[in-house]
């Protein structure tokens, strides 16, 4: 089990529970996480969803330590199928759940970790939190759910991608990516207080407000851009495969089934 799930006072709390690996995302964690999101979405007793993490760091991103057998032929179509479902479809689905969601972020949030917090409606960060996407070092132009331009603005997004440097919590608050920065020891308390306040609002009004903002972003091109940049992202994998490859997150059982 990689995820904890509990409901209290109309708030569903989903907790990443792989602290020994800095909550790095293997296939099991992502599948359990998606199931938890869907459970909260379907529960009429849940008004607000909180995503948090155990340990020092929110998420170190994709688990690049996943071992791939030497006899398993990794092809771009298999990578595309896996990433399309787990990295793009999951994130878009979480974004569009018709209930408010809040991410509580501490420590490092690296690359794939952004796919977990960016789909949330609000982000509360601890003072020690930082956000980064250093995958240009791997010959890729950014993680699969490419919300950089929307979250940071175009020039800041380019700076962060070009250099790989982390964005501090305060800097993220200044760009509007983070709603509030709080001391580390008050992160859960502050997140819970905000969730409680939101949970007291009429559910229909909350749903309509969220839909209005998300649809405005979609009209501006958010959804189309996310989809098109995901395809561009895959060319990085194709290039990597052509020159010897690099560690990638895969579900070995699924991939074996596709080639057997």
TrEMBL record:
It holds the Pfam family ECH_1. Transmembrane segments: none annotated. It comes from the Bacteria. InterPro entries: ClpP/crotonase-like_dom_sf, Enoyl-CoA_hydra/iso. This is Enoyl-CoA hydratase. It comes from Rhodococcus zopfii.
């Amino acid at each position: 089990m990689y995820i904890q799930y509990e409901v209290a006072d109309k708030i569903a709390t989903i907790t990443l529970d792989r602290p020994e690996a800095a909550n790095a995302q293997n296939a099991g964690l992502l599948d359990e996480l998606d199931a938890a999101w869907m459970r909260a979405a379907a529960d009429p007793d849940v008004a607000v969803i909180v995503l948090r993490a155990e340990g020092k760091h929110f998420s170190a991103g994709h688990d690049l330590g996943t071992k791939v057998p030497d006899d398993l032929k990794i092809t771009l179509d298999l990578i595309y199928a896996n990433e399309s479902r787990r990295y793009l479809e999951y994130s878009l689905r979480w974004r569009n759940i018709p209930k408010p969601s809040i991410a509580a972020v501490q420590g490092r949030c690296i690359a794939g970790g952004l796919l977990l917090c960016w789909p949330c409606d609000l982000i509360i960060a601890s003072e020690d939190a930082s956000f980064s996407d250093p995958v240009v070092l791997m010959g890729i132009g950014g993680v699969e759910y490419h919300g950089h331009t929307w979250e940071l603005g175009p020039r800041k997004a380019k700076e962060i991608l070009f250099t790989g440097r982390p964005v501090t919590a305060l800097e993220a608050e200044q760009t509007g990516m983070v709603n509030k920065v709080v001391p580390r020891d008050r992160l859960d308390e502050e997140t819970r207080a905000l969730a409680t306040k939101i949970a007291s609002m009429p559910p229909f009004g909350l749903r309509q407000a969220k839909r209005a903002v998300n649809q405005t972003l979609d009209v501006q091109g958010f959804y189309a851009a996310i989809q098109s940049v995901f395809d561009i992202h895959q060319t990085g994998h194709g290039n990597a495969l052509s020159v010897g490859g690099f560690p990638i997150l895969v579900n070995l059982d699924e991939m074996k089934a596709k080639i057997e």
